[in-house]
Write a structure and sequence with these properties.
- The structure is a single chain.
- This protein has helices at about 15-25, 35-45, 65-70, 90-100, 110-129; strands at about 5-10, 30-35, 50-55, 80-85, 105.
- By secondary structure, the protein is α/β, with parallel strands linked by helices.
- It has a single domain, classed as Response regulator (Rossmann fold, 3-Layer(aba) Sandwich), CATH 3.40.50.
- Strands 2-1-3-4-5 form a five-stranded parallel β-sheet, sandwiched between helices.
- Helix 2 packs parallel to helix 3.
- It is globular, with a radius of gyration of 13 Å.
- The model has no long low-confidence stretch (mean pLDDT about 95).
């Protein structure tokens, strides 16, 4: 099947971060975790994940600021980044997509929908490389 895909979770809430880690572990992904935007950027450079789940509301740098920095780095311009947010309104989703997120996942996370989105973006990334 090839090597295990790496997913970075950037989430400041420990309970949410751990729940996502358990879900992704169970789905067979290697999980890297960050608790704020600065740590997320450092780990993206160091670990070069295949996909990022990025909480919108984080201390130090919020998800939008982190995404802007990711997209400015040519190494990560096409890295799939999915917004994680408690804001589930249509306008919030549209704002995230306009900002450059590939997808918008609302919390609490629907595991089946999360899995479908991850598989879609990882398969798209593989076919592009």
């Amino acid at each position: 099947m090839g090597e295990t895909k790496k997913i970075l979770i950037a989430e400041d809430d420990p309970a949410s971060r751990e729940l996502l880690r358990e879900i992704l572990d169970a789905l067979g992904y290697e999980v890297i975790a960050a608790c704020d935007g600065v740590e997320a950027l450092q780990k993206i450079v160091a670990a070069q994940p295949d996909l990022v789940l990025l909480d919108i509301q984080m201390p130090i740098l919020d998800g939008f600021a982190v995404l802007r920095q990711i997209r400015q780095d040519t190494r990560f311009a096409t890295l799939p980044v999915m917004a994680l947010t408690a804001y589930a309104m249509k306008e919030d989703r549209e704002k995230a997509l306009r900002a450059g997120f590939n997808a918008h996942i609302s919390k609490p996370v629907n595991v089946a929908a999360l899995r479908t989105q991850i598989e879609h973006y990882l398969s798209t990334k593989m076919s592009a490389s």
